[in-house]
């Protein structure tokens, strides 16, 4: 549509007029055009860099959160958890260890205190050497019932009171899913060892368990 200027106004051939003060100025030169386009490209490039940084940051947070909740250094893709029972569907990696003392006896003991670690325990492992153990640490005292689902190694377990005293010693048989229910409800720790270890080393109910860092409360709940 052509247009012409008439008495200070722009007039289109269709008769509609627009004030000269309202007309949009045209880009006067090729240099101005390229300047505007360059500014727009710089802004778009900056937005892309910002989005990429935010995306990378979120991935890093997700990875660190998973490692903290799981209590292992394994990549999330390597951990397969039973959706109903909450345990791993494979043997868990070796857990951090501590020296546990029962009188003159010393046990190199793995520490299970995260929910997945506790639920998995010795599942799918094929051996437990003499003078090694696994201690299960619970936040509060309660009755205990340890079973042997997916376990092939015969074990003995000590049900332990908050002060570290052994309240009960029970034998656990491979594949037993009923478990052994405790008589006491004041139990905060469970220590698993190769079956018969307590008898072989003359450890009995009433004995007190300590670690290289002191009592069990001092070791695991120092800040309480």
Approximate helicity band: 25-40%
Detail the poorly predicted runs: 1-28, 49-72
Would you count the extended β strands for me?
Answer: 13
CATH architecture verdict of the largest domain:
Sandwich
- Here the CATH topology of the largest domain equals Jelly Rolls
How would you describe this protein?
This protein has 224 residues and is an alpha+beta fold. Helix 2 (115-120) links the parallel strand 5 and strand 6 (132-142). The strands form 3 sheets. An 8-stranded mixed sheet has the order 9-8-11-6-5-4-12-13. Helix content is 25%, strand content 29%. The protein contains 4 helices and 13 strands. The protein folds into 2 domains: 27-70; 97-220, Jelly Rolls (Sandwich), CATH 2.60.120.
Short key terms for the protein model shown above:
224 residues; alpha+beta; eight-stranded mixed beta sheet; three-stranded antiparallel beta sheet; 4 helices; globular; disordered N terminus
Produce a short descriptive summary:
With 224 residues, the protein is α+β, with helices and mostly antiparallel strands. Helices cover 25% and strands 29% of the residues. A hairpin with a 2-residue loop joins strand 4 (97-102) and strand 5 (105-112).
């Amino acid at each position: 549509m052509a247009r012409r200027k008439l008495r200070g106004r722009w007039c289109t051939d269709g008769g509609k007029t627009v004030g000269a003060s309202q007309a949009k100025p045209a880009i006067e030169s090729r240099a101005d055009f390229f300047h505007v386009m360059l500014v727009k490209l710089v802004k778009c490039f900056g937005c892309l860099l910002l989005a990429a940084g935010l995306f990378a940051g979120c991935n890093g947070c997700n990875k660190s959160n998973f490692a903290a909740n799981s209590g292992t250094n394994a990549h999330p893709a390597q951990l397969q958890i039973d959706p109903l029972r909450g345990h791993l569907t494979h043997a868990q990696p070796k857990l951090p260890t501590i020296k546990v003392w029962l009188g003159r006896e010393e046990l190199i003991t793995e520490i299970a205190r995260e929910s997945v670690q506790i639920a998995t325990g010795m599942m799918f492992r094929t051996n437990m050497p003499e003078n090694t153990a696994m201690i299960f640490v619970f936040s509060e005292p309660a009755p205990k019932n340890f079973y042997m689902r997916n376990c092939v190694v015969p074990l003995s377990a000590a049900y332990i009171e908050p002060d570290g005293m052994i309240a009960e010693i029970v034998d656990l048989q491979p594949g037993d899913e009923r478990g052994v229910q405790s008589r006491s409800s004041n139990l905060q720790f469970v220590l698993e060892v190769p079956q018969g270890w307590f008898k072989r080393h003359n450890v009995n109910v009433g004995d007190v368990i300590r670690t290289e860092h002191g009592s069990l409360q001092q070791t695991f709940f120092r800040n309480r």
